[in-house]
Amino acid sequence: MNAQALLDLPQDVSYAEMQLDRLVDLLDEEFNALKEQDLDAFEELLNEKNHILADLTQLTGVRQPQDADRLGPEWTPFRTRMASCRDMHRRNEILILRKLDAIRGALESLNVNDPTSPVEVYDRLGQIKRLRRMRGYNEA
Questions:
Q1: What per-residue confidence (pLDDT) applies to 36?
Q2: Any idea what DSSP says for residue 127?
Q3: How many CA atoms does the CB half-sphere of 54 hold within 13 Å?
Q4: N or C: which terminus of the chain carries fewer CB neighbours within 10 A?
Q5: Across-strand partners of 120?
């Protein structure tokens, strides 16, 4: 959007566009933090993202998807970009879910019920569960 077009928009729409620019950047940074498994950076970005979303909600009055239909035509570019942000958020959500599935799979593979396995894992209390020791009881 060029500078002249911004001057033609009402002040709240141009402010919302600036916030939206930052939201797009945050969603990209969030995706990179997730890929790199930098949870500290992810949490910081999440807080800033939530602040921007709350600010945009207050500014636009949109709390539910159907509320967006009440915005005037000057908000059309904003609405289109927000839909793009929703897609970026879903992309990040999918990455999180895939990583959680991988972690669950790894944990399941460690939770071996095979008494002959030499693997030592932690039980729910954080104590080492020596599966090898159980073999003696099974053989007896």
A1: 93
A2: -
A3: 6
A4: C
A5: 130
- CA 52 to CA 45: how far, in whole Å? 11
Contact 33, 45 (CB under 8 A): yes
Mean pLDDT for back-to-back runs of 10 residues, the chain (140 residues):
45 89 96 93 94 91 80 86 94 93 81 61 67 49
Phi-psi region of 126 (alpha: psi -120 to 50; beta: other; left: phi over 0): left
What's at 91, amino acid-wise? Answer: R
Distance of alpha carbon 46 from its chain centroid, rounded?
A: 8
pTM recorded for the entire structure? 0.67
- Scan for tokens 């895939």, then name that residue: 98
Helix, strand, or coil (residue 124): coil
The C-alpha atoms of residue 62 and residue 84 are separated, in whole angstroms, by: 16
> Phi first, then psi: what are they for 38, rounded to 5°?
-95, 85
pLDDT at 133: 46
